[in-house]
Each structure stands twice: as structure tokens, then as C-alpha cells.
Amino acid sequence: MGAIKTLQTGLAYSQSLLSYKTNGSPRPFSASFVVSNRCNIRCSYCNFPLMKEPELTLPQVEALFKRLKQIGVMRLGLLGGEPLYRKDILEIIATAKQLGFFISLNSNLLLYDKFNGKLSDIDYFFTSLDGTPERHIKNRGKQDYDKVLAAIRHIRSTGKPLTAICVVTDYETADADYLIALAQKENITLHFQPECFDTEIVLRTANEQLNQQKAKVFWQYLLTQKQQGAPLTSSAEYFKYIIHWHNYKQSAVYTPEKRCAAGLGYLFIDATGTAYPCAYTKGKTKGINLLEENWQTAFTKKTPCTQCIVGPMLEFNLLFEKPFSSVANVLNIA
Length: 334
Ligand SMILES: C[S@@+](CC[C@H](N)C(=O)[O-])C[C@H]1O[C@@H](n2cnc3c(N)ncnc32)[C@H](O)[C@@H]1O
Ligand code: SF4
Fold this sequence. Notes:
Elements lengths: L2 H19 L8 E7 L21 H13 L4 E6 L8 H10 L3 E5 L17 E5 L4 H8 L4 H13 L4 E7 L4 H14 L2 E6 L17 H16 L8 H8 L8 E2 L12 E4 L4 E3 L11 E2 L5 H4 L8 E2 L2 H11 L1 H8 L4
Parallel strand pairs: 1-2, 1-8, 2-3, 3-4, 4-5, 5-6
Antiparallel strand pairs: 7-11, 8-9, 9-10
Helix pairs in contact: 2-3, 7-8, 10-11
S-adenosylmethionine binds next to strand 2, strand 4 and strand 5.
């Protein structure tokens, strides 16, 4: 991240935090935008490619980004579906760049080689690696694992940071060991997140076989690895929170005395330009059309849940609930 963007992102976060702590008006510093639900592959746990929704046109995307700028967003995550599947993705990135956002891109990287180094405006890359090639293919469909690795190497050779997201489906520490060794070799970082269940953007409900104790041991193992210096981008607080989660078959719960920073500190925008507090709440709460309405006045500050183990949202919530212990780790999480 360039020094100026780092400073601007830090400032936007500080303003968000101040507003959150003083119960002020919503002031998201970070937004994730689904550029397209369409995807070149079909992962076993993901529902994006099956959601048929109209996409915003390029001028609408520009209007959306300007609106985000007005409400104080500095960090813009472009995701999907597969964002590189969209034909005008380079124009979308250029628009975001022109408006001065810190831009991250979540991509499966299978189309990366078609872009011939044209993704230099991306500040931070996220990709997906679910474990050994066998586990990855079991979860994410038959594909060229080496192609993903080649793209990762190319991105790192340009000096850009990259985090690989691992969706944990089977709680096997051997997969974690494999990925940690790979991350050390390729000089990348890892973010492990539990498979998320029972919401619009995902495909599955928890398997009855999911073993609470085995999952707890797995998250404890990752915390120990983190403390021993493994390249895990998630904060220690993140692992501690997940270790104490009451039921891994449930991704989120509503606890009235708890607060959630979704919608206040960060938000999610689907492919149609409709905004929700976070990705998990799409379909559970009324969305706000950001092309027509202003988030700050339209958002009621209510979320259908207040506690969760949905990977990126948990890390963001810790950033607002425990800012001092989380901040160093989290500014680069999707
Ligand atoms: C929706 S994808 C979009 C980006 C890109 N297509 C990719 O796969 O990296 C963003 C991330 O969410 C993860 N994901 C998808 N379904 C999930 C689920 N049910 N639980 C947790 N993470 C999930 C994906 O593995 C990916 O790392
Ligand atoms: S996780 Fe990513 S690559 Fe897999 S189906 Fe969903 S959007 Fe496509």
C-alpha cells in the first residue's frame, strides 16, 4: 500500500471507529462490491453463480463508487462471483483507481493469465486455496491448481501483497500444515475461515457430522501456529473468538445485548447495487438501493444477527470492538 493510501485508509477507519464508539451516524470506511455473480467454476459451498441478478452497467458502477466516496468509504473490495469473468473489469478497476480507493480484488485467478499484467491498479489480492490439490478440487471443482500457483507467483513477483483464503470444510490439520508450508515457500499470507451456512450467498446447511470438539481443536491449532510465527493474516483475537464459539453448525446469532459493526463500519453491495450491512445479511434484511438512496440516512442501524463467525465480518467486528489488539493485523482482510 502506498504511504498516502495507508494514511487515508487509517484516517477513514478512525472516523468510522469514532462514529461507532459514540453511537454516531453510520460511517463505513470499507465496502465490498460484487461486480458480477457469474463465475467460471462451481464451488461446492458457494451460491453466487446460481443467483441470477442483473448487473450494474459501467456508468452505474461509476455512480455507485462516487456515492461510496461521499459516505466516507476508502477501502473498496471487488469480488464476485468471479470478477475477472466480467468483460469490463479493467474499466471498473480504472474507475475505482481514479476515485482514489484502496482496491482489493478477490479472484480464483484461473483467468489471471488473460490479463497480461494489466491488474497493476489492484493494491491487494485475495485468492482461494482450500488445502492440498485434492482437497481444493474436492471443494472447488476440477481445475488447474498449478495455474493458480503460477498466478500467485506472478502477483508476488510484482511486489503486490496476496492472501489466500481457505474455507475450512473438514477440520484436518494436515491441510493447514500443507497450506502454511506453501505460504512460507510462496511468501504469501493465509486467512482461514469456517464454511458459512444458511444464508443467501452460500449453498449449504451444516453437515450433521460436523464435530464441535474437532473444530475447536483445529482453531486452537491455528492459534498456536500463529503464535509460533506462521504467516496467518487473521488476528489472534479472531482465533480466540472462534475457539469459544458455541456451535460451529451455526454461523451467526442474534444476542440483543451485543452490537455488530456491519453497516456502521463496513457494508456489502450486491451485483444489483443493493447494499446490506454485510454479505451474510443479504436476504435476511431489507436492502438499500445505493443508486437512489443514501446509506447514512436510510440504514436503520439494525442487523438480523449481532454475533458471527463469518470470516471477514468477524475480523471487522473485532476491529471495532477490540481496535487496539486487532488493528495491526486486520487492515488488509476482505
Ligand atoms: C465468493 S468468493 C469470490 C471470489 C472468487 N471467485 C474466489 O473464489 O476467490 C470470496 C470468498 O468466499 C469464499 N466462500 C464461498 N462460499 C463460502 C462459504 N459458504 N463459506 C465461507 N466462505 C465461502 C470463497 O472461497 C472465496 O475465498
Ligand atoms: S467461491 Fe468463487 S470461484 Fe467458487 S463458485 Fe463462488 S465465486 Fe466462483
